[in-house]
Specification:
The chain is of the alpha/beta class and 372 residues long. It contains 11 helices and 14 strands. The strands form 4 sheets. It has a 7-stranded mixed beta sheet with strand order 3-2-1-4-7-13-14. β10 and β11 (307-308) form a beta hairpin.
Length: 372
């Protein structure tokens, strides 16, 4: 289920070519469009950016039939997913848009150009108004579970969690305090800390390795999700799974907050069944390096026998200059996300309701039915 080899977003991305002569003039770089949307609005969710990008593709497509348009959409979706190191968030939006186009019937007697314009306009309208309404519903649903004087533990940075905490503290005047993990290697927990302190919500950053130490002091765990899978489990920043295990061991409720546009038709069986596009350094997730040779770590490529410097770790004088942080190459062989199994999730709060793991499957069935 892992997509094909990844390419960096800064690399030259081939333009999208339509499959037939009637639409051979189609050229649209969905990767550039996607990253441009994210650059223009740092708070834009990845699935919504993917929907915006595909709606732009549809509006510019020269496809003359539904089958040609669907081929354009599928090709563009695969191109975008293959360009991302972590394609999970974008995949949710791409799949949702594809399903929307499939179910939106076209009368062959009508103008197909008008049909494409209608598809693009409806998708754009959906994406524009869905985010605020989804988060408002989630904030109202989770509010009764955040009691006055609660101590909350959260992980990394989640927009919907931030809005829920802000709503509880500033709108409902609940006194809450928050622990947030630093969330290495990106350190997004520091972003959470900065914003919460600006809101006037007491917050303390803890080490990722201090979750078990901190758990007895908290009343509940609130996390976001990059994706919600069919089993009712969640995909989120690495460390979420470990936090959920500790929460269950300490008998603390673990609540996940996620908008319904993050629901995925995916059923991972374990941590290594996630759609991650490999490691940019050329190795595998959690791969062991070769032994130090000279000043670098050299590895033989399996095909040509040429040397490639996977971790490029300098030979150190261990008494004076032992590194205190992981190198960039060492970070790259570590996972970006993990899979929190449904048995560890107390409730999932979404705009479609407060769900148990089995309820996620019902929600997905309502959207996708039995479609492939």
């Amino acid at each position: 289920m892992t997509p094909s080899a990844t390419s960096s977003s800064s690399a030259t991305i081939p333009t999208l070519l339509a499959p037939s002569s009637s639409s051979s003039g189609d050229e649209f770089d969905i990767v550039s469009s996607y990253h441009s949307l994210l650059s223009s609005d740092s708070e834009l969710p990845f699935p919504i950016a993917a929907i915006f990008a595909l709606s732009e593709l549809v509006s510019k497509s020269k496809a003359a039939t539904t089958s040609e348009l669907m081929e354009n959409i599928r090709s563009a979706s695969q191109r975008l997913k293959s360009s991302l190191e972590n394609p999970v968030p974008a995949t949710a939006g791409l799949d949702l848009f594809t399903r929307f186009v499939v179910t939106k019937s076209w009368d062959s007697g009508d103008d197909f150009e008008a049909h494409k314009a209608s598809l693009a306009a409806l998708a754009h309208e959906f994406a524009l108004h869905t985010v605020p309404s989804c988060r408002e519903k989630i904030c109202e649903l989770v509010l009764p579970f955040i009691k006055d004087d609660s101590v909350v533990l959260t992980h990394s940075y989640s927009r919907v969690v931030m809005q829920a905490l802000k709503h509880a503290a500033l709108t409902q005047r609940k006194r809450i305090s928050v622990y947030v993990t630093e969330s290495r290697p990106h350190g997004l927990g520091l972003k959470t800390y900065t914003q919460l302190m600006q809101y006037g919500i007491p917050c303390t950053v803890i080490l990722d390795s201090a979750v078990a130490y901190t758990m007895p002091k908290v009343d509940l765990v609130l996390t976001g999700a990059e994706g919600v899978v069919e089993s009712g489990g969640i995909l989120n920043a690495v460390g979420t799974y470990g936090m959920a295990i500790i929460a269950k061991a300490c008998n603390k409720p673990f609540f996940a907050l996620a908008e319904s546009f993050k629901f995925l038709r995916m059923f991972p069986l374990n941590q290594y069944d996630l759609p991650i596009n490999g490691v940019k350094a050329g190795g595998e997730v959690l791969a062991f390096p070769d032994l130090v040779v000279g000043d670098t770590v050299a590895a033989k490529q399996s095909d040509g026998g040429e040397e490639s410097h996977i971790q490029n770790t300098p030979k150190l004088n261990t008494e004076t200059d032992t590194p205190k942080l992981m190198s960039k190459a060492q970070q790259l062989i570590n996972p970006a996300i993990d899979y929190t199994t449904p048995d560890l999730v107390t409730f999932l709060f979404s705009d479609v309701g407060v769900l148990t793991p089995s309820g996620v499957g019902d929600a997905l069935l309502a959207v996708y039915g039995g479609a492939d």
